[in-house]
Amino acid sequence: MIFGAAFVPDSTFLQSLPYKVTAVYHGPTVSAPPHQDLYADAKKLGLYREVSDHKYSHINATEIVGRILKSRDRYEERQRVKGVKGIGEEAVRRREEMEREQAEKVKNA
Q: Which one, 27, 33, 71, 91, has least CB within 10 Å?
């Protein structure tokens, strides 16, 4: 797996990597405009392998990015709620500390 790989794995990219590429895999999802073969160079180099249909075939990059963004929204909301809760808890701690200090002053007076 190559993170940050080119969207179109052309021969220049595939041959410029610091290690030997033995295969370029693609699933049954459609990711190219009609009549455009994004894997033409990989096919010419004999590297192209197509993964057959499977139970996760519906998952593609768009689906994954959507899930990440949805999770991020939920994460940010949890953090916001924690922040608000933390502010309230800090106010309670300060009030309790002031009450202890006042009680100590009254006791020592």
A: 33
Q: Is 40 exposed, middle or buried (0-12, 13-18, 19+ CB in 10 A)?
A: middle
Cα–Cα dist 46/61, whole Å: 24
Give the H or E element holding residue 80. helix 61-108
Strands 48-50 and 24-26: parallel
The answer, as to whether pTM is greater than 0.70, is: no
Q: Which two tokens stand for residue 13?
A: 């990219």
50-62: per-residue pLDDT in tens? 888 888 777 777 7
Condensed to tens digits (0 to 9), the pLDDT of residues 28-78 reads 777 677 788 888 999 999 999 988 888 877 777 778 888 888 888 888 888
Report how far Cα 107 is from the mean position of its chain's Cα atoms.
57
